[in-house]
Design a protein that fits this description.
Elements (H helix, E strand, L loop, with lengths): L1 H20 L2 E7 L10 E4 L5 E3 L5 E5 L5 E5 L6 E4 L4 E4 L10 E4 L2 E4 L7 E5 H4 L18 E5 L8 E5 L12 E4 L2 E2 L23 E7 L2 H4 L10 E6 L5 E16 L8 H14 L3 H12 L13 H5 L3 E13 L3 E13 L6 E14 L4 E16 L37 H7 E21 L2 E20 L11 E24 L3 E26 L10 E27 L3 E12 L8 E12 L12 E15 L10 E4 L8 E5 L8 E14 L3 E13 L2 E5 L8 E5 L2 E17 L3 E11 L1 E6 L1 H4 L2 E3 L2 E3 L7 E5 L1 E4 L6 E4 L2 E2 L5 E2 L2 E2 L7 E5 L5 E11 L2 E11 L2 E4 L2 H4 L44 E3 L2 E12 L2 H4 L6 E15 L17 E2 L6 E11 L1
Subcellular location: Cell outer membrane
Organism: Flavobacterium defluvii
Membrane topology: Multi-pass membrane protein
Length: about 1000
């Protein structure tokens, strides 16, 4: 008994000793303002023991009192403190770009340890810029990202190319992810011009936007990452005193540029001369008599500026608020915004409401629950597409001698072409987009280093369109008509994944993410058309006597995915990353339904080596490289299926074979390589340079089939393209004192996107003015080359460009257009892009401006054959046609005016122009009142500001604007396209 009791006492003392040795220390980590910092790493110095703070900044770690805790977090100085129970640790934020935290798929990572290429903007970079869409606020700020609004309509579509094109026939837009929700970005327009579904977002709710550009960063999104991934993160509440912010602004807009057109006197003189030159003056003057509607056209009684009517002064009103705060248990963020934009294009307006609620609650020390919920409603009054006679900008083709309105104020119906004012007075096209985004999430911390996240996300985009045409609408033959459509698109995603973070021996840091995801998409569409209305007072479907047409369809797709990612760092200087995603999609053939998308990257932080670690000059030096495979799944939901379509006849049902199936059809695959270097000097200058190459294989094409097969073509994966170039970003702190700070950010990008192979033995693919040819830029312009004017007789000339026996081109000039061969004449995409942003702070003043430039692209004005033809017909002409050839010896590039003579009016490089430009994209000047002035008002700050967008443009482009493109079809074309708006606004920002 004594021996057993002795052993028991010995074991009890040993247990007490071990328990004492494994004493648990708890504490809280906050910033200088007392706000908790989640995710902070705490290590017991000299031991393999670590922990992380939870969402409320609280941690527990197995340590004894007096042991040294090493506390570190990105963007903050690392500190060492002795362990003590209930210890409070304050971290000081460092103003160091390397410590910035960027958002990556399913997590975050510090810029210092990043081996990917990710471009980022934060709320301060885009807030208070008076644009109606989020994407336009990013222009010029991101290397390798080209952002272009189709034209100056408020609802104009947006084209974004990340590091050039990754496809020819499939989708080219990036994947947008809002707080983990893949956003619906379908263009549901029925009027021929695209809408921008991301109009439904407001900048006031956005915390940051991170663009994943290379394969290493985007591969975690697998089959949908080939065109880049745009991660949008909304604002969250933080523990501490509640804050309330209000922002109000009012802006005025006008067109960036207007073309010069002939006035009435010039128009008449040119038409008369053109008629005399072909001995047809009498018929010309008869038409002028008709167009003038009985007014004295010979003496300029009417001189209508149709462009001035079509383009008006626009107005923009913005109002938004946000409230945020919380305690150690619950955090909240609420926001609301209102935008009312009267566009510069007549009859084109936008009214938008948005609201957001983000809430999180800590249920226990280990479990956190939350929900993000956003809603928006956008009402757009639209005009027809650029290729419609009732579009305002096509009115520039009208004769200036034609009155726009009659004496009674009604629109003149007797113009050369349909008077768009008839559409303005007797039609409307109303589009309403309603969007609901929601995310419910749970985070359970299993261990200090291991957590599990479960997210359920939902995106609903509902759009209705109502197109009413009254009895007096253009081309109306049924006493009125109404078209109404409705489409509901929903996308839900279930994501479940584990995250493991741990540091061993103070040297080896691991971050592992593994999980799975299910994505389901569903779309339901229906429309109906009604005709024969008794009165224009009835403007809905049920007012018509006959419902003569209707359509409806449903479609869906699904993705199921598994993904994993490993980040490893050794002593914060040797960096490795590997990721893999396996995607299965219902869109592809049953034999190729699943694909695997791996990626690898590595980095070496040379500045952490002993020979540079203490350098005060070279403060950062890192080399990195990555490789990975991505996919493009934007090919339609049923491209691989054998399809039949209904084909009723005489009220009898029937089916028609519509599309052959291809069980081997799969996504386009893109292999991407990136090499880069990051350099920092004196903690004031940072330089990042990258070379990238993007090879896309298995391009989707419709391959022709024999007639005997019963189908014209079949979808196959054939073809290759390559995009490559350089990106350089330079950030400098020019002046950094207490009262005066001046920072500069400069980026420059080169890009070439060329075709490497095509189907049918590399046969050229020609569509309208564009060609895809092996070895040439994607969608190059393919045109007959204009050779100017014969000075002897005023004939238009063209280069033959036929191939001679030795393989060279015959550069002989000819007046016979049919003798000339088409050549590759230009590139619709820029090969060089640049952005320059300066931010200057002086005491209470702040001044920021961004210049943006593009070079190497051309625009083809496909309306030139009507508007720049030296009076070939009755269209009004651009002012440069006054330089026409008139007598032998005249040297000019404008042929002799010949009414109906077709003198140089054919499609050719005559209407191709360089689109190089430099633009002052945005400028903001603000003043923040001193705090002692505000203390009696209960405000923490009050700022008054002036801001402008597209303030100045430097270009030799002769059209409306070097960024305006036609919105109905075509690549790189201008066709009566509206220029973007130049907007100036004043505003005030209150903070409580």
């Amino acid at each position: 008994m004594k021996i057993k009791l002795k052993h028991f006492l010995w074991l009890f003392l040993l247990f007490v000793q071990i328990a004492a040795a494994q004493e648990s220390i708890s504490g809280k980590v906050t910033d200088k303002k007392g706000l908790p910092i989640p995710g902070v790493n705490i290590i017991v110095k000299g031991k393999n023991v670590s922990a992380q703070t939870d969402f409320d900044g609280i941690f527990k770690i197995a340590a004894k009192k007096g042991e040294i805790l090493v506390v570190s977090y990105v963007s903050y100085d690392t500190v060492e403190v002795p362990a003590a129970n209930n210890i409070k640790i304050e971290l000081i934020e460092v103003q160091n770009e390397l410590e910035a935290v960027v958002v990556v798929g399913y997590g975050t990572q510090s810029k210092r340890n990043l081996t990917d290429n990710i471009a980022r903007v934060t709320a301060k970079d885009i807030q208070q810029i008076p644009v109606s869409n989020v994407q336009n606020a990013l222009v010029g700020k991101l290397a390798g990202v080209q952002i272009t609004q189709t034209n100056g309509k408020v609802d104009g579509g947006i084209n974004i190319r990340v590091r050039g094109a990754a496809s020819i026939s499939a989708g080219t837009q990036p994947l947008y992810v809002l707080d983990g929700i893949p956003l619906i970005n379908d263009d549901e327009s029925s009027n021929g011009a695209p809408t921008n579904p991301l109009l439904t977002l407001s900048t006031n709710e956005i915390e940051s936007i991170d663009v994943l550009k290379d394969a290493s960063s985007a591969a975690i999104y697998g089959a949908r990452g080939a065109n880049g991934v745009v991660l949008i993160t909304t604002k969250k509440g933080r523990e501490g005193k509640g804050t309330f912010t209000v922002n109000l602004s009012q802006g005025v807009s006008e067109a960036t540029h207007k073309r010069k057109w002939l006035n009435a006197k010039q128009y008449v003189e040119l038409l008369q001369e053109a008629g005399r030159n072909v001995n047809d003056l009498e018929s010309v003057e008869d038409e002028l008599e008709y167009l003038s509607q009985g007014t004295d056209w010979r003496n300029g009684a009417v001189d209508t500026d149709w462009q001035d009517i079509a383009l008006r002064t626009g107005y923009t009103t913005d109002a938004d608020f946000s409230a945020s705060g919380g305690d150690e248990k619950t955090k909240y963020f609420f926001s609301g915004a209102y935008n009312n934009t009267t566009g510069i294009v007549d009859s084109n307006t936008l009214e938008r409401f948005t609201a957001r609620t983000n809430v999180s609650h800590k249920v226990t020390d280990r479990l956190t629950l939350g929900m993000n919920l956003g809603f928006s409603r956008s009402l757009i009054h639209r005009v027809q597409d650029d290729n419609s006679f009732s579009s305002p900008l096509q009115s520039v083709a009208q004769a200036p001698i034609s009155p726009a309105r009659l004496e009674d104020g009604s629109a003149n119906p007797n113009t050369e072409y349909s008077n768009y004012l008839l559409a303005k007075d007797n039609t409307f096209w109303k589009t309403i987009m309603r969007r609901l985004t929601g995310k419910a999430f749970a985070e359970f911390r299993i261990l200090n280093s291991l957590k599990f996240n479960s997210d359920f996300s939902y995106d609903l985009l509902s759009q209705t369109e109502d197109y009413w045409q009254g009895k007096n609408a253009p081309f109306m033959a049924t006493d009125g008509a109404v078209f109404a459509s409705s489409v509901n698109t929903e996308n839900y995603v279930s994501s479940n994944y584990f995250t493991y973070d741990q540091t061993f021996a103070e040297k080896h840091t691991f971050n592992v993410v593994a999980g799975m995801e299910f994505n389901k998409y569903h779309r339901r569409y229906q429309d109906v058309n009604s005709i024969y209305f008794s009165s224009d007072d009835f403007q809905t479907v049920d007012g018509g006597a006959e419902v003569n047409e209707g359509h409806g369809n449903e479609t869906d797709y699904a993705f199921v995915s598994q993904f994993g990612r490993l980040n490893y760092s050794y002593m914060n200087k040797y960096l490795l990353k590997a990721s893999i995603r396996r995607d299965g999609s219902s869109r592809f053939g049953k034999n190729e339904r699943f694909g695997v998308f791996p990626a690898f990257s590595a980095g070496w932080v040379i500045s952490q080596e002993e020979f540079l670690k203490n350098s005060n000059v070279l403060t950062n030096l890192k080399v990195k490289g990555s490789w990975g495979k991505l996919g493009n799944a934007e090919i339609g939901n049923f491209a691989s299926r054998q399809l039949y379509r209904p084909n009723p006849y005489n009220l009898k049902s029937g089916l028609t074979f519509d599309q052959p199936g291809n069980d081997d059809l799969t996504w386009e695959k893109s292999a991407q390589t990136d090499f880069g270097i990051e350099v920092g000097f004196l903690n004031r200058f940072t330089l990042e340079a990258d070379y990238y190459q993007k090879d896309t294989d298995g391009l989707l094409f419709e391959v022709p089939l024999p007639i005997s097969s019963g189908a014209a073509s079949i979808n196959k994966n054939i073809g290759k393209i390559r995009s490559n170039g350089f990106e350089v970003t330079l950030n400098t702190k020019n002046i950094d004192t207490e009262n005066f700070k001046w920072n500069t950010s400069f980026n420059i990008t080169t890009n070439e996107s060329k075709v490497k192979s095509l189907p049918n033995d590399n046969r050229d693919i020609i569509v309208s003015y564009n060609i895809n040819r092996v070895g040439e830029n994607i969608s190059s312009f393919y045109l007959v080359e204009y050779a100017g004017v014969d000075p002897d007789n005023g004939d238009a000339l063209f280069y033959k460009n036929t191939k001679k026996a030795d393989g060279t081109l015959d550069r002989t000039k000819t007046r016979n257009y049919s003798e000339a061969q088409r050549i590759i004449a230009g590139n619709p995409f820029p090969t060089l892009m640049s952005g320059l942003t300066n931010t200057i702070l002086y005491k209470g003043f702040d001044f920021t401006f961004t210049f943006q430039g593009e070079w190497g692209a051309s625009i083809y004005n496909s309306a030139g054959i009507y508007q720049s033809t030296a009076a070939d017909y009755f269209d009004n002409q651009t002012a440069d046609q006054l330089n026409r050839w008139q007598k032998p010896g005249d040297i000019t590039d404008v042929p002799q005016a010949r009414f109906g003579g077709g003198n140089g009016t054919q499609d050719s490089s005559r209407y191709l122009d360089k689109a190089d430009f430099v633009r002052l994209r945005n400028l903001t000047l603000g003043y923040t009142l001193p705090k002692d002035v505000l203390k009696d008002l209960g405000m923490s700050s009050l700022r008054i500001y002036f801001t402008a967008v597209n303030l100045l443009t430097f270009t030799n482009y002769e059209g409306n604007d070097p960024e305006a493109r036609r919105d109905d079809t075509g690549i790189g074309e201008d066709f009566y396209s509206a220029p973007p708006a130049r907007t100036t606004a004043i505003g005030v920002n209150f903070n409580f």
